């Protein structure tokens, strides 16, 4: 059962949301003295976290902040590991699909207090099931990592700001394609175990993508 939301929420347009979040990020200091900010936009694919992260990247660049965009879909494990328990195992989707070790090695480690800033945008193509071979880039000090994807919170990532796009169970089921509804139990488990609406710094109610509301 999804816990009820607490606190006040303010209606906001999608365009204004990206700008308001960018202002919030630019006013945030790294929690561990790192030269970089690390931000996650967490949400099921049905909530379109990548779309918000892309808009946020543009808003941050307009504010003079370099951005490194990473999607969780570029750091999935190879199919032989992801699908070890079958193609539609919700517990494997929750626990095993994301290659957290690779994210630490190629993204979070280099953006730590003693890091080099040399990071990858992605590592694995889950469709072709092979390495992407993308080149490394260097995020200058003062830059912002923007990571988007599902089930990102509660993994110990050193995030300076976490945004959670919240869908009610009914909205999540309605907006999830039929061929992906086997993942719904994983999101129920995520709500019960991780409680992302309580873990995140900012919660966005996203049942209607045209009319979001955010926690203030």
From TrEMBL:
Q: Do you know which InterPro entries this protein is assigned to?
A: P-loop_NTPase
Q: Does the keyword Transferase apply?
A: yes
A GO molecular function annotation here is: kinase activity
Instruction: Provide the alphabetized UniProt keywords.
Output: Kinase, Transferase
Q: What is this protein called?
A: Uridine kinase
Q: Which organism is it from?
A: Streptomyces desertarenae
